User: What shape does this take?
Amino acid sequence: MTHTQHRWGMAIDLDRCTGCAACVVACHAENNLPVSTPELAAEGRTAHWIRIDRYYQGEFPDVKVKYMPVLCQQCDEAPCEPVCPVYATYHNPEGLNVQVYNRCVGTFYCANNCPYTVRYFNWFAPQWPEPLPLQHNPDVAIRPGGVMEKCTFCIQRIKRSKEDAAQEGRPLADGEVRPACVQSCPAEAMVFGDLNDPESKVSRLAGNGRATKLLEELGTKPKVFYLHKAT
Amino acid sequence: MVARAAAAPSVQPIAYSHKQHLALGLECLDCHSSADTSAAATLPSVRKCMLCHAKVAASNPEIRKLAAFAANHREIPWQRVYGFPPEALVKFPHAPHVRASIACDRCHGDMTKATTAELQVKHTMGTCLGCHRQYKATEDCAACHY
Assistant: This one.
């Protein structure tokens, strides 16, 4: 896969992550995700484009908890893509794994094939209690019922930043594009940027000795890098 | 998806004439002033109209309507003619198209012959893609659908 200009990627420093879930909240607000109810949660139908996985080490009372924010890994060899019968999910020239809501017919094949289980299906048309509809982000589509959705790396923010740079006639600066999760992380554990730029912060972190990829052995070639102290 | 149904000329609150204003030397961007810098082209506020019309043609009955809106500090309830409904799940920014020197009439028709705003060009995906292919612009789905 050749990339024309940018190749977006993310690095998440797990040694910094405190599991505060600010990224989850920010993602909900930014991307017009419906709020869940206890009933939906019991049915496993809550929608989150990013979640915090928890890992417990040791025996009580000497327990250590490790947190891991898991979002769409924007795989270069994405298992979700070849199984879609209507090409609703595909790789775009910037390496993003894109979900086209207009095309999706809701076969669920992509979610079945995602080893990271980061795809979410709209079982029903999304609903928000008042006054939450007033804070919908106009730059992001409100997905109808019956379509699959997932993290977009905040493509609307990528576009906004590129548009700002184009308007000012300058190249996009490293760190200029910040998805909602990255922006909201109080520990600055998440870094977003262009993997095609060897000098970008995310490229340097991806080449760090602490960098690993989630379920790398599956050959999915994720573009999210997790940094943690080797144990 | 097709654009919203055209508003009939009569539903516009004031019989504004594009033809007349363009013939007098005004340009699209003089009133739709954000088209070259942002996603939305925007409509001018009533105060902008009054910059000229406080004096110009003040006795015209249509301009009196305009002055009444201004006096009451109310914006003119123009009926939208172009645009996509939310269920079309499509985003259109004006600025990159203006930067690429795509003339306004390519999508909005020849307004030098039009009076009140009316739908002259249908905005379907075919309209967009035909032009994008001609100018070798992006055909990536995510360019517009996200």
